[in-house]
């Protein structure tokens, strides 16, 4: 564990807490893409299949439970909770995510470390996580006024993976033989997808104006 | 093939 990875995990956790805070307190998910939330739940389920048979540390175990629990409860809130579901804009959240899921699955079958079910699922979860934000970014472009919590949520989500990139650089130089091409490339693609959001987010923060993404 | 990867990261 290094400071970049811990900061990354804490940033990731806080992004989820910001979203849960928004949904639970103001009972609204306006501007949030249910498609992206469902993709994240799938990412965690396929990533943590080994939660019970490969024990790394208490920290690892607890964080996996938190990520699984929070992502599933967010999907539940947006689908089942009357008030929250009413605030969900399904006419705008129209990204057909089969165009994301299937290619990631095929790619995971072709490019992986080992052709076993768990390893392919783990690789699939990496590819899926890299592009899972797309429905949310598309929805942000369609959402006229993006509220602060939604902007903070997406920003923290992008920042966590950027911190993981620093973690991989650190581990590459401190741990001989630490090479994770699949993880690195997926993580780089994921972070690059946030590039223009970061640009407009920081601009809106600097000029103290409402965040707006050009359509 | 590469050695068994320990998925030690989240």
UniProtKB/TrEMBL annotation, chain A:
GO terms for biological process: protein retention in ER lumen; protein transport; vesicle-mediated transport. Residues 1-31 form the signal peptide. GO terms for molecular function: ER retention sequence binding. It is a multi-pass membrane protein. Keywords: Endoplasmic reticulum, ER-Golgi transport, Membrane, Protein transport, Receptor, Signal, Transmembrane, Transmembrane helix, Transport. It holds the Pfam family ER_lumen_recept. It is found in: Endoplasmic reticulum membrane. The keyword Lipid metabolism does not apply. Its main location: endoplasmic reticulum. The keyword RNA-binding does not apply. PANTHER family: ER LUMEN PROTEIN RETAINING RECEPTOR. This is ER lumen protein-retaining receptor. It comes from Cucumis sativus (Cucumber). The lineage of its organism: Eukaryota, Viridiplantae, Streptophyta, Embryophyta, Tracheophyta.
